[in-house]
Design a protein that fits this description.
single chain, mainly beta, 10 strands
């Protein structure tokens, strides 16, 4: 079992940047896949990015070239660097222990709100 705590969400203008953090309650060294999802109002939760413990990554087409996922196994933390933010990136962002590059697992954080607006 693992608890996940996200942080770093904020209100930012279009074109701005944010870095989200996901702190795990135990070592993530042995967790193969971790990822970020987001859910906008009245929309389904969607995968944003996933990372394997070997460093391999997978991104949603909508964020490729703008977002970067990374992990710091020594500090049990996963990051999501978001650049050139757009209003359509507005959502609650969730950290997840994933089953593979494409499918979520059982462990979720509480989410952090990202709002992109003038």
């Amino acid at each position: 079992q693992v608890q996940l705590v996200e942080s770093g969400g904020d209100l930012v203008q279009p074109g701005g940047s944010l870095r989200l953090s996901c702190a795990a309650s135990r070592s993530i060294f042995s967790i193969a896949f971790m990822g970020w999802y987001r859910q906008a109002p009245e929309k389904q939760r969607e995968l944003v990015a996933a990372i394997r413990n070997s460093g391999g990554t997978n991104y949603a087409d909508s964020v490729k070239g703008r977002f970067t996922i990374s992990r710091d196994n020594a500090n049990n933390t996963v990051y999501l660097q978001m650049n050139n933010l757009k209003p359509e990136d507005t959502a609650v962002y969730y950290c997840n222990v994933m089953r593979n590059y494409y499918n979520s697992g059982s462990y979720w954080g509480q989410g952090t709100q990202v709002t992109v607006s003038e």
